[in-house]
Automatic annotation (TrEMBL):
InterPro entries: TM_pro_TauE-like, TSUP
Subcellular location: Cell membrane
Keyword Transmembrane helix: yes
Main location: membrane
Keywords per UniProt: Cell membrane, Membrane, Transmembrane, Transmembrane helix, Transport
Similarity-based family: Belongs to the 4-toluene sulfonate uptake permease (TSUP) (TC 2.A.102) family.
Gene Ontology annotations for the cellular component aspect, listed alphabetically: plasma membrane
Membrane protein topology class: Multi-pass membrane protein
UniProt key word rRNA-binding: no
Listed name of the protein: Probable membrane transporter protein
Organism, as annotated: Pseudooceanicola atlanticus
Domain of life: Bacteria
Signal peptide range in chain numbering: none
TM segment ranges: 41-59, 71-87, 93-112, 124-140, 160-178, 190-208, 220-238
Amino acid sequence: MDPIFLLIPAALLVGTSKGGLASAGSLAVPLTALLMNPVEAAALLLPVFIVTDWVSVYLYRRDFSPRNLKILIPSALLGVVIAAFIVTWTSEAFLLIATGLIGFWYCLRAWLTRPDPSPRPARLVPGIIWGMLAGITSFITHTGGPPAQAYLLPQNMPKLVFAGTISITFAAINLSKLPGYYVTGLFEGLNWSIVAILIVTGVMGTVLGRRLTMILPQAAYVRVIQVLLFGLSVVLVTKGGADLIG
């Protein structure tokens, strides 16, 4: 099979996640890793993440939670700095499993308890903790979504505000990774023609994701995000467990 037939769906997943269907994009790196080393896969997709991030920032420029951004972005950037120091001795398999368990915990709590639809305030200390975890896991494994969603989803904010807050947060996180990837030479040897094709595909996916977010009713949107998060958690725990055993 021509690698492009797996790379294009991966870029489309990145785009739809940036358009509002959070968690879908985190499946892109495991999918691309079927073809290449996971580190190479992450480097190949980072330009796609960054460009689609800023397309989504434009699309959601009027829909976001200022307080959540003030809490999440600084703490997530601190998490990125921490991850840069601990990445050499941190077990990626353990981190994948831990991230997946966070997703399981949130989904099971949401599905097994009586839902409370009333909005909840953004709390500072939990936000700092979840933001740091999002930064750490995003830097090392490109899977920062579950910690951020575990913090934001219980606030029951409108779907567009949720999508915009997630998009802007990860636009800042992914942009902060760029110097580290460049300095370590991870961009050397990339086929930039393929990267350009993937970026165009990702932008198309971003517009599609935004459209689907607009169409879906609030309750259905939350359910879709929860199902995507649960599916991602299954993938993360399975991959982490396989890496530990293997």
